[in-house]
Amino acid sequence: MMTPTTTVPATVTAFDLVSGLSAQRPTLRRRLSAMAAMYADVEAARAQVERDDVLVYEFYDMGVPETSGDVAYGTSITYPGKVGDEYHMTKGHFHSVLDTGEIYFCLRGTGYMLMENPEGDWQAAEFGPGQAVYVPRRYAHRSINTSATEPLVTFFAFPGHAGHDYGTIETRGFRKLCVERDGEPVFVDNPKWAG
Ligand SMILES: [Fe+2]
Fold it and tell me: What's the predicted TM-score (pTM) here?
């Protein structure tokens, strides 16, 4: 009998349930200057960058091999804040291999997973601690933090070969924006959507 091939040894990684961070690896960090043009109020974004180029979100790439038999995973932390009346969010992406799904399990905070497929169908799933959102195949996805005070901390997992396509969303945007109206998050049409 052949010994099964393993590419990644059994690994234990500690992620802090409050901060979402692991002391064992560096994060990839995205400051507002790296995504100012993605917000509806570009002037507000640029003014904020001038005052303080805030850290909007950070996440882990655990370095799992990019093969279909492996599972990429890590935490994502989106910090509270708004640009104009639009809540802090991640850039969002399609998977390069479009036909791959993903799971996000919320550890802390409150917010939405905004999803959109190439045909323009969109969904926004509200989630909080203990709730998992399943992102279907073919749907771009973006985390949005709607809390005024707490980071949105999630644990994600997706097929190792999925890859990331950030460019499509950078070009076309999401169909919907998540903005504050009378103290509540609502989704409105994105006037710049190019889908
Ligand atoms: Fe993804």
Answer: 0.95
